[in-house]
């Protein structure tokens, strides 16, 4: 079992014990991935009703917590992404999902060379479109190159495929899309946020991950086993954490719990 780790919202550390120390102090065996427990400044306030829970009980508690949010229009998303996705090294640009390209904020639109609003949880998976609600939820909307976004389409996520042109290392085959390594954890945590936030009780479909591809218009996205692995292999970055904070402080006033507590992915699924 993984040991207990402490992580502030901007830093994550993993303590690897040697076999000699483990023998002397009878420490638990550490995994090779950063799956240990974390703590955040929000545990005693925002997450207080979720701390210590697991499984469906944890999922239900988090659903209640994050469902309290301010909703925005789809047209407003353009300007929000210029803030949440801002390049930390160039305030005139945004960082694009999948490709990792830094592009001018002014190049938002629908043409080749522009960036647009990518629904990481494809809007056809549950048919929620662009209506206020899951269609405008900032925790899964990201700026993305128009062409790369079109290539991803509504494909499920899985490993393998051929390189995507200008995709930063992303791959695609006939039934799935694999983001570049630096975005894999981001994608996993966005997808699993959506699965907790939208449970079917507020007029929207019950969104759930499964271990399949070719989910079509069903309210499912796969593959869960792959997303879990990506969450472990690509821990939350400073970019993700800053984005989560901006959405919480300024726009929706809710958080993606899997950025704050990536170990909750394994605790639920």
TrEMBL record:
Q: Which residues form the signal peptide?
A: 1-23
Q: Which domain of life is it from?
A: Bacteria
A single Pfam family it belongs to is Endonuclease_1
User: Which parts of the sequence are annotated with region: Disordered?
Assistant: 159-180
Q: Which UniProt keywords apply?
A: Hydrolase, Nuclease, Signal
GO MF annotations in UniProt:
hydrolase activity; nuclease activity
How is this protein named in the record?
A: Ribonuclease
């Amino acid at each position: 079992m993984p040991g207990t780790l402490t992580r502030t919202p901007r830093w994550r550390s993993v303590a690897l014990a040697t076999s000699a120390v483990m023998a002397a102090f009878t420490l638990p065996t550490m995994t090779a991935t950063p799956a240990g427990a974390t703590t955040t400044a929000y545990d005693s306030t925002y997450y207080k009703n979720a701390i210590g829970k697991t499984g469906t009980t944890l999922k239900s508690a988090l659903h209640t917590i994050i469902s309290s949010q301010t909703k925005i229009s789809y047209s407003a998303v353009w300007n929000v992404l210029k803030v949440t996705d801002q390049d930390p090294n160039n305030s005139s640009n945004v960082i694009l999902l999948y490709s990792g390209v830094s592009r001018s904020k002014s190049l938002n639109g629908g043409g080749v060379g522009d960036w647009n609003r990518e629904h990481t949880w494809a809007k056809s998976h549950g048919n929620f479109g662009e209506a206020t609600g899951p269609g405008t939820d900032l925790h899964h909307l990201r700026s993305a190159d128009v062409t790369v976004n079109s290539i991803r389409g509504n494909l499920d996520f899985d490993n393998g495929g051929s390189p995507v042109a200008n995709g930063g290392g992303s791959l695609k085959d006939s039934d799935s899309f694999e983001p570049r390594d630096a975005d894999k954890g981001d994608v996993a945590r966005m997808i699993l946020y959506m699965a907790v936030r939208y449970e079917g009780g507020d007029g929207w479909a019950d969104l759930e991950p499964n271990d399949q591809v070719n989910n079509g218009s069903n309210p499912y996205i796969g593959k869960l086993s792959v997303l879990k692995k990506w969450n472990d292999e690509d821990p939350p970055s400073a970019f993700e954490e800053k984005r989560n904070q901006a959405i919480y402080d300024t726009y929706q006033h809710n958080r993606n719990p899997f950025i704050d507590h990536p170990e909750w992915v394994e605790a639920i699924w």
